[in-house]
Amino acid sequence: MNEDVVSRPNIIIILADDMGFSDIGCFGSEISTPNIDSLSVNGAVFTQAYNCARCCPSRASLLTGLYPHQAGMGHMVADFGKPSYTGYLNDNSVTIAEVLKQSGYKTALSGKWHLGRRYDLTEPENKMPVGIKGYPTPNQKGFDEFYGTLVGATSYFNPKMLMENESFVEPEGKNYHFTDATTEHAINTIEKFNDGGDPFFLYLSYTAPHWPLQAFEEDIAKYEGSYLKGWSKTRAERYEKLKSLGIIDPDWEISPKDSQAPDWEDIKHKEWEDRRMAVYAAQVEHMDRSIGKVIEKLKERNIYDNTVIMFLSDNGGCAEFLAEDASLPLLKQFDFPTLDGKKMRIGNTPEIIPGPADTFVSYDLPWANVSNTPFRLYKHWVHEGGI
């Protein structure tokens, strides 16, 4: 291999899922993210980079360099019978993985794909239309190595549509967590590519901190009680830190509290609300800790200084409400038992304490309003809070 190929930088794109503008420490958060923060200290911080407000369009645009409509992902994963709304990454688009392979790069995706049409998770996996037109896999779109899920959201402790390259696999080990498994695959792939002497492109696509709110108890415990101050005070503290860090113009005013968010003083179940945000924070810190392991591996291999690392989010914080009625079509997709056979408890109700593998909860509009400080609105909207 010639010297020019060897000297080419490795490239890692790390994509968080449904994470708001102010959810990391270097952007004003109280959540501990030292590894992501270290990237900001040693690199460039972009405050005017925009996504496409939802998972699929952002991913399509990121991987192809096209507007999402040009890539067939103008909305989500439903087929509306129009070229811009095919519901999958179309054949007219070329991914960065396909292009880099032509220049001698090895390519890998660890984590979430979500660029094929919607799968019915109530059907057995072996009956899924995987790999045919409309349902492309990462391997078909230029990635040499793939481990992750084809769908947009799933349990962290028992993920569905889990694949390694072209084969379905099952979660392994009683302490399995998808964030850890995604990271492990990324590290193993880095070692494999580095052993071969090839430059590599790694798309590290975490599902964290997308709902459901699921995390290890020891991570949650660190944050329990931190949010009993309420959403308005937490927003105000983040806003002041954003100004002090120089991330936002000090002349900007914080957007008004969302009118749909009740006053904290009127909340009856404050401990439950605190717990919801504590689990979310735990998911963000877990992702950061995982990113630290990747950075550590790069340094161990003496390739950190020759690796371009980018960290971004596919959209703003998510205000989606998971109703308690699991018979709703969307929620029925997630009504499957845990690895040890426990029945899933779905919904945003104080009777369901989020965190464990048998719970499926979201953190809802008021906390999403905190995530997107100082902006307004959320994922779905093309206001600043969404993009």
Layout of secondary structure:
Blueprint: H1 3-7, E1 10-16, H2 34-42, H3 55-64, H4 96-101, E2 106-112, E3 145-149, E4 162-164, E5 167-168, H5 178-195, E6 200-205, H6 217-221, H7 231-245, H8 270-300, E7 307-313, H9 329-332, E8 345-346, E9 359-360, H10 364-371
Question: What this model shows, in words?
Answer:
The chain is α/β, with parallel strands linked by helices and 387 residues long. Helices cover 29% and strands 11% of the residues. It contains ten helices and nine strands. The strands form two sheets. The chain has a seven-stranded mixed sheet. The chain is globular.
Offer a concise description of the structure:
By secondary structure, this protein is an alpha/beta fold. 29% of the residues lie in helices and 11% in strands. It has helices spanning 3-7, 34-42, 55-64, 96-101, 178-195, 217-221, 231-245, 270-300, 329-332, 364-371, and strands at 10-16, 106-112, 145-149, 162-164, 167-168, 200-205, 307-313, 345-346, 359-360.
Pick out the low-confidence regions.
none
Helix content: 25-40%
How would a textbook summarize the main sheet? 7 strands, mixed
By helix and strand content, what is the structural category? Answer: alpha/beta
Q: Biggest sheet: strands side by side, in what order?
A: 5-4-3-2-6-1-7
Number of strands: 9
So what's the overall shape? Answer: globular
How many DSSP helices?
10
Summed over residues and divided by their number, the pLDDT gives a mean of 94
Labels describing this entry:
single chain; 387 residues; alpha/beta; seven-stranded mixed beta sheet; two-stranded parallel sheet; 10 helices; 9 strands
